[in-house]
Amino acid sequence: MKKKNNILKIEHLSVTYGPIKAVKKVNLEVSQGEYVSLIGANGAGKTSLLKAILGIEKAEEGNILFLGEDISRKATDKIVSLGLCLIPEGHIIFSSMTVLENLQLGAYHNPSGFEENLQRVFTYFPILKKRSSQIAGTLSGGEQQMLSMGRALMSKPKLILVDEPSLGLAPKTVTEIFDILGELNREGYSILLAEQNAKKALESSHRCYVMKTGEVAITGFSSELIDDPQIRQAYLGGS
Ligand SMILES: Nc1ncnc2c1ncn2[C@@H]1O[C@H](COP(=O)(O)OP(=O)(O)OP(=O)(O)O)[C@@H](O)[C@H]1O
Ligand SMILES: [Mg+2]
Q: Is the minimum distance from the CB of 40 to ligand 1 under 6 angstroms?
């Protein structure tokens, strides 16, 4: 089988906060068009890893290659303009601005094709079009998560990093969010998802990395890991 090209290749990446080693020599790859998940308990290092990719946290050691280019020491705005985005944990939005203003800010680093991108976001999230002049802070939690995703898509990413999109949302909304992630992937976006909801993550992704105290403990195809007794016991409630 022909090997697919990597869009992201991480080698021996470590992230530390003073004495705390949050990420320890992690190797991880995402191929073009692939949907990869990252699961693990509280404090396993998932968010730290995503932040390091975006240059929000400094890589203590190791390399991060995006489309073959080493981005491990680049500034976040430069990384975003290369085609990477992070949908952060906790659907962070600018709550006193309107929905449309939030989306406009998402296009800040990649302003070309603004109208086209906006229409694409409205196709994925019709509710954002309906609420475009509404103050973002008055949206429901699920709508705020959609706005956070829509804003990231406005930067025309090639690879989408998503951190715990299901956090604090009702089950029906969680399903909706995961359906949209699947749709985005089928449309050609590569995705790296960090998620504590291991079941949803494994059901939706092609491959998965399991993180344990900063290290990659297990990796494999999601369809196989979902039936793995060890994974079922530790991350899927033993069911
Ligand atoms: N800004 C920070 N300063 C100091 N320690 C931090 C900081 N952010 C994270 N940590 C520590 O780094 C480790 C990894 O945390 P991280 O948030 O990356 O894990 P996580 O897998 O995303 O967890 P969760 O599932 O709770 O979101 C933890 O021990 C955490 O306490
Ligand atoms: Mg986290």
A: yes
Q: How far, in Å, CA of 216 to CA of 54, rounded?
A: 19
Ligand 1, atom 11, residue with closest C-alpha: 22
Angle at the Cα of 225 from the Cα atoms of 189 and 237, rounded to 5 degrees: 110
Q: State pLDDT tens for residues 103-116.
A: 999 888 777 889 99
Which of left, alpha, beta for 90 (phi over 0: left; psi -120 to 50: alpha)? left
Cα distance between residue 202 and residue 208, in whole Å: 7
Does ligand 1 have an atom closer than 6 angstroms to the CB of 88?
no
Q: Which residues touch 227 (CB under 8 Å, ≥6 apart)?
A: none
Instruction: Tell me the per-residue pLDDT of 74-124, one tens digit each, with 9 for 90 and over.
Output: 999 999 989 999 999 887 788 999 999 999 998 887 778 899 999 999 999
Q: Which of 48, 192, 197 to mutate to test the pocket of ligand 1 (most atoms within 8 A of CB)?
A: 48
Q: Which ligand is nearest to the CA of 43?
A: 1
DSSP assignment of 3-32? PPPEEEEEEEEEEEETTEEEEEEEEEEEET
C-alpha angle with apex 217: 12 to 201, nearest 5 degrees? 105
Minimum-distance ligand 1 atom for the alpha carbon of 196 = 25
pTM for the model: 0.94
CB of 22 closer than 6 angstroms to any ligand 1 atom: yes
The span from the CA of 202 to the CA of 149, in Å, is 20
Ordered domains of the chain (ranges, CATH): 6-235 (3.40.50.300)
